C-alpha cells in the first residue's frame, strides 16, 4: 500500500520508472529504516530479511499496470493504508520495547515507523510533508500505540490487543476524514507583521 | 530555544499542532541525533535520557501561548540561541572526542550538533536551509569548537575554557549580524550563460 | 568530481563559501555515509580515515578558482564523473559484501553509495533530485554492480573485473546521454483528472 502511494507521487511528478521504484521503496521502507537507524538496529531490517524487498518489488508491476484502477479504489486503499500504518506502529513499538528502551520512546518509534516513509517521500519530491498539514495521521498512530502498550500491560490476549489498537487507529482516521477534523494550531491571534528571522 | 524556532517555522507555514510539535523536536534534537547516528552512538541520546524529550515537551505550551511575546523578544532570543548553539557545539565535540575520534572530526561533529537541527527543519518545510545563505552560523560554531579544543589542550580550567569558547561564538555572531558580514563566495566572475548540467 | 558538482549547485543558488563547502562535502561523502549508517558501519568511513576529508578539502580551492574553466570541460568532467560513480558503486558493493550481507543488498548499497550524495545535495538546495527525472544514472550503476558481482564470482582477475564493470557503466551512460534514452514510466494512459490524495 505504501509502495502504491510512492508510485502515485512519482507519477504525479513525471518521474521515470527508476525514480518511481526508488520512491516506492522509500515510502514503504523509509519509516522502519529510520527507526532502525535511530535505535541502533543496523544493518536495518530489510537488509537482513529479503522478504521486505521482495514484497515491494512484487507490488511494483501491479502499481504500474493498475494505477488507473487503483486510483478509483480510494475507499479500499484508505482501509488498507490505515491497517498498514496501524501494523507498522505496533511492530515498531514492539521492536523498540524489545531492545529495552522506554515505553514513551517505543511509542514514538512506532509512529516514526508508520509515518516517516511518507515524510521522506514528500521531501524527495519537494512537497511539504502531508503530515505537517492536514491529516490526523500521526495522532491516530500515537493513539493506537498508546492503546496497544497499555492493553499489553493489562491483558494477556495479544491478538485482541492488536485488534483493538487497529480499530482505534481506523476509527480516529475515519472520523477525522469524515468530519474534516483539524487540530487547531494556535488559539491566540498573532499580528500579521510577524515574520520568522 | 531551538524548539521555539521550530514552532515559528511551523506557524509560518500554517502547520497544525502535531506538525509544530514534530518541527520543534526535530529542530531541537535533530543535530544531536544526526551526530549520534554518524558516530555510531545509537540508540541516540534522547532515547536513553528522557530529560531531552521532557524539556522540549515542556517548552511547547510556552511556545504556543507566548509566541507573540516571544517574537518581540528578538534580542534576548538571539542571546539564548547563541548560547544554545555554543553549548551544543562543545557537547558534541566532547562526546565525539570521548569515543576516540580525531579532533577535526570532533569539531565538525560539534558544528553538526549545533546547526543540523535547523537544516533538517528547513528541509522539512521546504525552505533552502538558512545556513547555506547568509548566517555566519556554522563559522561561528567552528571557531568556538577550535578555541574550545585548543584551550582544553593547554589549560586545565574546564569552566574557563567553556566560557571563552562561548564568548568567541557570541562575539563572532554578534559582529556578523551587526556589520552584515557575508562570506564571499567566489572572487572570479562567471559567465552568466553558465548553467549546471 | 562530486565536490565540483556540489560547488556548482552552490554557485547556482548563490550560497556563501560555507554553504558551498558543506554542499561539496555532502555530495562527495553523502552516499557513502548513508550506506555506512544503513549497514551499521559507524563511525562512518570518513571519520576513521582522514584522507576522505583532506581530498574534498583540497578540491575546494580548485573549484572556487577554476569553476569557470571547469564548466567548459563538460566532456572530461562527464568522463571523470562516470568513473567516479562506477568506483563508488564497486567499493560500496564490496564493503557491504564484506560484512556478510546478501549480494542483492550489496548491489543496492553500491548504487546508494554512488547516487545518494547527489540526492542529498538536491534535497538540500530544494531541487527535485535529478535521479528521479532523466538520467539513466542509477540504472548504469546497478548494471555495473551486477556485472562486477558476477564477474567476481566466476573470474579471479579482480582488476579485469573492475575494468569491465567500469566500462559497462560508462557505455550505458554514454549511450543514454547520446541517444537521450529515457526509461518510460507507464505504458498505460491515465485519466488527467487523476490526483494524488
Strand content bin of chain A: under 5%
Helical stretch count of chain A? 8
Shape of chain A: globular
Q: Give the termini distance of chain A in whole angstroms.
A: 40 Å
Class derived from helix and strand content of chain A: mainly alpha
Low-confidence segments of chain A: 185-197
For the sheet with most strands of chain A, the description reads: none
Average pLDDT, all residues of chain A: 78
The residue fraction in helices of chain A comes out at: over 70%
Number of strands of chain A: 0
User: What oligomeric assembly is this protein in?
Assistant: homotrimer
What is Rg of chain A? Answer: 18 Å
Largest interface: A-B, 37 and 35 residues
Question: In words, what does this structure look like?
Answer:
The structure is a homotrimer. Chain A is mainly α and about 200 residues long. Chain A contains eight helices and no strands. Chain A has helices at about 1-10, 15-40, 45-50, 50-70, 75-100, 105-125, 135-155, 160-180. The radius of gyration of chain A is 18 Å and the shape is globular. The first copy, chain A, starts with a helix and ends in a 19-residue tail after the last helix. Residues about 185-195 of chain A have low confidence and may be disordered. Chains in contact: A-B, A-C, B-C.
Amino acid at each position: 500500500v505504501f509502495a502504491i502511494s510512492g508510485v502515485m507521487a512519482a507519477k504525479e511528478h513525471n518521474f521515470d520508472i527508476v525514480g518511481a521504484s526508488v520512491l516506492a521503496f522509500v515510502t514503504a521502507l523509509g519509516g522502519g529504516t529510520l527507526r532502525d537507524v535511530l535505535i541502533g538496529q543496523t544493518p536495518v531490517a530489510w537488509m537482513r530479511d529479503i522478504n521486505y524487498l521482495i514484497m515491494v518489488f512484487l507490488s511494483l508491476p501491479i502499481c504500474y499496470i493498475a494505477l488507473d484502477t487503483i486510483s478509483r479504489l480510494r475507499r479500499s486503499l484508505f482501509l488498507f493504508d490505515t491497517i498498514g500504518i496501524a501494523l507498522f506502529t505496533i511492530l515498531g513499538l514492539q521492536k523498540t520495547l524489545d531492545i529495552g528502551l522506554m515505553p514513551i520512546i517505543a511509542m514514538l518509534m512506532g509512529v516514526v515507523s508508520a509515518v516517516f516513509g511518507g515524510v521522506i517521500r514528500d521531501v524527495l519530491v519537494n512537497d511539504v510533508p502531508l503530515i505537517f498539514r492536514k491529516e490526523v495521521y500521526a495522532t491516530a498512530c500515537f493513539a493506537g500505540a498508546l492503546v496497544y502498550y497499555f492493553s499489553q500491560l493489562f491483558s494477556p490476549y495479544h491478538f485482541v490487543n492488536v485488534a483493538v489498537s487497529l480499530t482505534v487507529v481506523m476509527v480516529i482516521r475515519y472520523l477525522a476524514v469524515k468530519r474534516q477534523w483539524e487540530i487547531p494550531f494556535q488559539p491566540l491571534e498573532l499580528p500579521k507583521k510577524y515574520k520568522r528571522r
